[in-house]
Amino acid sequence: MNQKISNSIERLNSEFTKRYGNEPEFIASAPGRVNLIGEHTDYNDGFVFPVAIDKYIHIAVQRRSDRKVQLHAVDMREECTFSLDHIDKDDTPQWAKYIKGVAHYLQELVLHDTRHVMNGLSAVITGDVPISAGLSSSAALEVASSYAFLAASGLAISNTINRNFGKIELIEIPLMKLAALCQRAENEFAGVNCGIMDQSISLLGKADHALFLDCRALDYKQVPLNLTNLQIVICNTNVKRELAASEYNKRRAECENGVQILKKWLPNITSLRDVTLDEFKKYEVELPEITQKRCRYVVEENTRVLNAVDALSKSDIETFGMLMNASHAGLRDLYEVSCDELNMLTEIAQNINGVLGSRMTGAGFGGCTVNLVRTEVVDELRTNVMREYTKQTGIKPDIYVCNVGDGARINWISQS
């Protein structure tokens, strides 16, 4: 068992026992993610290339015999209680909306088979995925919740089942179907029109591999990273912009508007995924200036993802890093979702010999950068970022050297 998960289980056991008087039966854990390249392409039916990182959301659970759901979020210092018989978004903390959405849509899915009835649960939630940092804490929460509700109802999918744990029935839910369910919860209960990347990598992550995902066909491939003498380093601006969610939805609408205009000349397209760079160059003059910039970025980024995966397959890490840098430039200048703090971090990193690539990751307007760094200069990067970023902003950044880990799992605690 991963040592970080093991340590979290001990802490969660203590928190759970303090609140409910006994140990949890199991802990559902799901990782955050960092996207190496392919930002804002998922909701445009494009390509992405994320990895699961060794930061997790954990939900400690005791099954209930009734339909009540009792939640305590340790880090938020908040509680939420609801019934599976009546799930709504009213008077609900934002973090709990993700869980309610998962419960609602999972119940719809499970109840199609009349043999299955979802049970309630008592739970304690904590984790070390930074919130609003672009590392997908929301998707990790959704995925962990889906596993928790299934296990609490005596159900499990193949990669979570422990055949020695009581009466657990293995059910067939394709992981991409579960990812789409969690995405729907975020779209419709939390009001964020995200794509499917974050939930997919939280479910499908594999140690030392990145996930090449086609967000239209939902086909995917695990790609070995082979990062010999390299580290993935995440730098957190510790800046959170309230406009991130609204601007995210706005960018999505701008892309959709571009598709509608381009259909006049390219009638068979349904998304920017269908537009080649040559086609875009031919017709971009027909688009309003802002729409043109947004669409150009997406078309170019899809090409960069394909080129990055090809470079990695050839162990051409230098080209991979250059594509990361180009991705950030596009996010900054064309998609305009970066910010001064993110740009500052990438500039500091890109000026260090041995940092192969640096870009913002996540929705933008704050959050984190991801950096591909030679092992021998990790300390130099950490020192320079801490010194220069703090000097220029007055904000102390957080820096994480990340391992690439596996996707969501259930860890069984007791056999009661």
Structural commentary:
This protein is an alpha+beta fold and 416 residues long. 40% of the residues lie in helices and 24% in strands. It is built from eleven helices and 14 strands. Strand 11 (355-361) and strand 12 form a beta hairpin. The radius of gyration is 22 Å and the shape is globular. It starts with a helix and ends with a strand. Mean pLDDT is 91; it is low at 161-165.
Task: Give a brief outline of the structure.
With 416 residues, the chain is α+β, with helices and mostly antiparallel strands. The protein is 40% helix and 24% strand.
Spell out the blueprint of helices and strands.
Layout: H1 3-20, E1 26-37, E2 47-63, E3 68-73, E4 78-83, H2 94-110, E5 121-127, H3 137-152, E6 155-156, E7 169-170, H4 175-188, H5 197-204, E8 209-214, E9 220-224, E10 230-240, H6 244-262, H7 277-283, H8 289-313, H9 317-333, H10 340-350, E11 355-361, E12 366-374, H11 378-393, E13 398-402, E14 409-412
Parallel strand pairs: 3-5, 6-7
Antiparallel strand pairs: 1-2, 1-14, 2-5, 2-8, 3-4, 8-9, 10-12, 10-13, 11-12
Helix pairs in contact: 2-3, 2-4, 3-4, 3-5, 4-5, 6-8, 8-9, 10-11
Which radius of gyration do the C-alpha atoms yield? Answer: 22 Å
Query: How far from one another are the termini?
Result: 21 Å
* Percent in helix: 40-55%
Q: Strand tally, please?
A: 14
Largest β sheet strand count, sense and barrel closure: 8 strands, mixed
From the structure provided, what is the oligomeric state, counting identical versus distinct chains? single chain
What's the rounded overall pLDDT mean? 91
Please state the structural category.
Answer: alpha+beta
Shape: globular
Unreliable residue runs: 161-165
Could you tell me the strand content as a percent range? 15-25%
What is the succession of H and E elements? HEEEEHEHEEHHEEEHHHHHEEHEE
Helix count equals 11
